[in-house]
Design a protein that fits this description.
Blueprint: H1 2-20, H2 22-34, H3 43-55, E1 61-64, E2 68-74, E3 81-87, H4 114-129, E4 138-144, H5 152-158, E5 167-178, E6 182-184, E7 188-190, E8 193-201, E9 205-206, H6 216-232, E10 241-249, E11 256-257, E12 260-269, H7 272-292, E13 296-305, E14 308-309, H8 312-325, E15 331-333, H9 343-349, E16 352-360, H10 382-400
Parallel strand pairs: 3-4, 3-5, 5-16, 6-15
Antiparallel strand pairs: 1-2, 2-4, 6-16, 7-14, 8-12, 8-13, 9-11, 10-12
Keywords: Hydrolase, Manganese, Metal-binding
Protein name: Amidohydrolase
Cofactor: Mn(2+)
Length: about 400
Amino acid sequence: MNSSRNEQQSLKSLHAEAQAISDDIVAFRRCLHEEPELSLDEGETARKVADQLHLLGLSPRRGIGGHGIIADLIYSEDGPTIALRADMDALPIQEETGLSFSSKRPGRMHACGHDGHTAMLVGAAKLLTQWHAPLKGRIRLLFQAAEEINAGAKAMIAGGALDGVDEIYGLHNLPTLANGMAATRQGALMGSVDRIEIELTGKGGHGAIPDQSIDPIVAASAIVMGLQTAVSREISPFEPAVVTIGSLQAGEANNVIPHRAVLSGTVRTFAQSTQMGMEMRLRRIIRSIAEAYRCEAEIRYVEQTPVLTNHDQCLLHVESVIDQMLLPEQRVQAEPTMAGEDFSLYLEKIPGCFFWLGSGTKENADQAFGLHHPKFTLHEECLPVGAALLAGIAVSRLQKGVK
């Protein structure tokens, strides 16, 4: 009973300390927001993060998996290692928020709130460096590049980010959930992400003489429609899957049948078994339709990230911290989503948990502009909450020990 009470007091203390440094967290987030950098080009962002960590007396290692950063807080040489992760990259979107600290870089915007995630983890680092109670083990901070293109986590893992790590935790802001709230889910939370690219080769010619040509646009149109049968007729209605062709490029003139057509799309599933069978299904459909329309088909299929599945013990730990640091009524069950996250690659390697943190208004959050929208806004009251939760999850885990 005493240990439980002490844990709750420690978590409440972290929450109060996070509120005390709220202005610093907000200021750093705004600094990042003004100068967003796209995936694989986060060098200046990484420098700013490293500078903040140096000021806290840490020794960050840069250049991990590109522009990624690792920083360890060592409380003892023995004991478990708990990792906390934040992503740093922005999106190729023209900002339309009208904020006083809007992006200064045309066509680039932190429209997914990764500036907020980074600021939260820097804030958590400050809380953790000020922690004086004895802890056994270490906490590893991971600042990851290239999440938006599903490349960063894989590169971080290859760079040794998980070496010696026992568990990993992360969060993502959610503008359609009120700030001060958190959402968790047992098991699968986010869908797998695969990419498909198709190049169809026909025979170009005059648009008025189609019999002397082989039209790849007609074949492409049939393929777009045919691919939907993989979901509606080959997969159980109780197993969610999505096939979306988001790009079809062919020809330039209205009276010319082009020689080629290029399609690209995304494939999402919510179970590993479903993901494993999608490539075979789609290749068969594409080749059959292409042959029927006398076209050659070149197919490139890439499995980018698996289903993001939380580990039960780690989820229970996160929920306990949320309930003690905030209130039980401030935690809700998250709805599953087909949106993807390369945090799932970490969870394939080691136990951990990923959850949503509300970043919307207190009222009518469900009407907010969503992630990746040019008017997306992260309400900054969530920043110290996120910093405190990340720090609290790691501290509490070290206090309890990893079993």
